[in-house]
Amino acid sequence: MFLNQNSDFLFGFQASMTNCNGDPDQENKPRMDYETSTLLVSDARRKRDIRDFLKNKGYSVFVDTLADKKVPMDVMFEHVRDYWLANNSQMEKLLNENSYLAEKWKLLYGEAKDNFKDIYHKKNDGIKKKAKKDLNESEKIFLKGLPEFNNLFLTEIIKRSLIDIRLFGSAMAVEGVSRTYTGPVQITWGYSLHPVELVKSNTITSIMNEDSSTFGKKHKLYYALVAHYGTINKYSARLTGMTENDQDLLRKCLVQGLMSNQTDSKQGQEPLFYLEIVYRPDFDGYLGDLRRFLKVGYDEDKPIRKLEDLKVDFNKLTSAVQEMKDKGYVEKMLGWLHPSYIKSNQLINMPEFDPVDLWAPIKARE
What we know:
single chain; three-stranded mixed β-sheet; 10 helices; 24% strand; Cas7_Csh2/Csh2; Type I CRISPR-associated protein Cas7
């Protein structure tokens, strides 16, 4: 079932002696707002964790590599398109379940029931080789109708197999495809809720062999409590086919994807909390960036090295959510806390929520 409700969500994690998101323009140092000593983490970092985790679970993702090599979008599109065209039973099922797409296929390629890939390329390649001035009227009509067929075909592929496009969308800057897929899930850049300090000693030594060694650098920060704000839009969900099951996956992948990324630079990160306001189906708005409601306290004369050095007060958020509930805009509030911090004195006055288990295993696809 496609989503029919908007949501706001807030995802918080802590980072200790790690590098959450290296900046290639700054020698891979942690991304920083140096004016405020605030750590920054891009939305691309969060999405990459989610994509990698989904891929490990057997899900198909579009923003990926082929044979361990990065490829441009048009190459990946051709790969995905041809994968579907080459599977006759899959194509037949697809056309049987989408009469409009079947009508467009028949109009462009005839009554074929098999060899879809050969038929598609034989006709497309034959016409594209011709100069424009040599095209007859039926070939001109074919080229005019091809983008609409590609749009419909790709949309069906996305709805049936490409979960990352269903979640995050894509501009699809590909020849022969004119549709843009706006992602229902939008995630802001994360930032630390307090000033952070970078570890000043970065030089390490890597031994290469018995006769020589080389010096390198690892850039880390001491501690940060980072929060991302995000939204889920029901209207964009209709276009990409994002479902309620996709939404459940997204929540779990935010938490489990972060933990799954145990590289040398990312080790030391732990998810702390996830809060989501699910609005009623007839409500079209959002409360807005939930981070602005948080009040973070700390001793300015002491270094911040752990969560116990902070106190995050959710009281303003709790009041704002209650006001939205009183007006009948909110259907439910969902939440998850890291088990170690359920009774934490550092995260106080959180809004009441229906608990969701975001550590529950995601079944791998075969």
